[in-house]
Amino acid sequence: MALWMEKDSEPLTESEKADLDAIAALKESAAIELKEKGNQYVKMGKKHYSDAIDCYTRAINQKVLSDSENSVLFANRAHVNLMLGNYRRALTDAEEAIKLCPSNIKAFYRAAKASLSLNLLAKAQSHCRNGLQLDPNNEELKKLGQQIDLKKAEQDKHEAEVSKAVAEAKELVLAIENRGLKIGKAMFRELTGLKKPVLDKNNILHWPVLLLYAEVMSSDFIEDFCETDMFSVHLDMMFADDQPLPWDDKSNYKREFIELYYEAGSGVCLSRAKLLHSLLEGTAASQQESAGDEEKDAVHGSNHVNTGAPKWVKVNERSTLHDVLKDPNFIIPGIPVFYVVSKRSSFYGKFKAGKWTPPSI
């Protein structure tokens, strides 16, 4: 009997040939029946999708149908997997269907749709184009192609924005390192938001600077403090009208009475990777990793400020911002923060004696 013939052996008698033909006919009939049953299960709704997949799989496994018929089975199984959200399986089945029958339009559509769902947009475009070459008037493929092209354009735009943001952030990191500046964890974010320095075309840093009136913890903000500017220039502009501040009922905080200080000797310098990550916050690249600089973390991140340095350091108003920021004991808390005090205020003695500290954040 042909049922017991060894694998790959040839039938020797007419009887064995007849048996093999009969078996093949039975398997073909079973495969066609399984295909039709699978189609019925699809029509019965989502609860029966797994039954449909099982039927299509068993029909394929009969291995008696032609390539074009098997292509239909793979395309059908891809369709069900798409509806179940099994996009990777759907793509595999659709591409197998195309391989078996390169004119299977439904297979191209399902391959494109699965690729779109997997965000494989170049592959989705390719399947769409190939399908439209076979059937230029296929409205479903045209509509899907438009969706894919739109999403691809959005992806390309986002990738360009990410690339630009990363490049600019790396330039900033390099500029900061070349100046010997140290950046620590950002403070007072409720006042500063995600403000960051900007490097202009002449390689000059422009910093947003926060001024805190320590006595009342009110604040002023300088949007663009060029690193080459002297402090006196900005203070002269801020206090040019000689009008008292809204909360300064004793007129202590006039131009001639104020002094600026920064806090030194505290904090830890961010590693290069963490600094890059910080500079990318709020940009298109905010979800990016630290762009390959992790290996340098150990060296750059080990710079602690000398805790023996004075806590409050008075700013020489004739100094430039760069001159002050390069102090090795000054770890910039995200952006430069300076404390404003008045020599006429009773608070001045307390501040100078080191009996005041910024509120914890």
Profile the largest sheet: 6 strands, mixed
Structural class: alpha/beta
Question: C-alpha Rg, in Å?
Answer: 36 Å
Q: What is the global morphology?
A: rod-shaped
Number of strands: 8
Task: Walk me through what this model shows.
With 361 residues, the protein is an alpha/beta fold. It has helices spanning 14-43, 49-61, 67-84, 87-100, 105-117, 121-134, 139-178, 189-192, 231-238, 272-280, 297-300, 321-325, 347-352; strands spanning 182-183, 198-199, 205-213, 218-226, 258-263, 312-314, 331-332, 337-342. The strands form 2 sheets. Strands 2, 3, 4, 5, 6 and 8 form a 6-stranded mixed beta sheet that branches. A two-stranded parallel ribbon has the order 1-7. Helix 6 (121-134) packs antiparallel against helix 7. The longest helix has 40 residues, at 139-178. The relative contact order is 0.09. Mean pLDDT is 89; it is low at 1-5 and 290-309.
Explain briefly what this protein structure is.
The protein is an alpha/beta fold and 361 residues long. Helix content is 49%, strand content 11%. The protein starts with 13 loop residues before the first helix and ends in a 9-residue tail after the last helix.
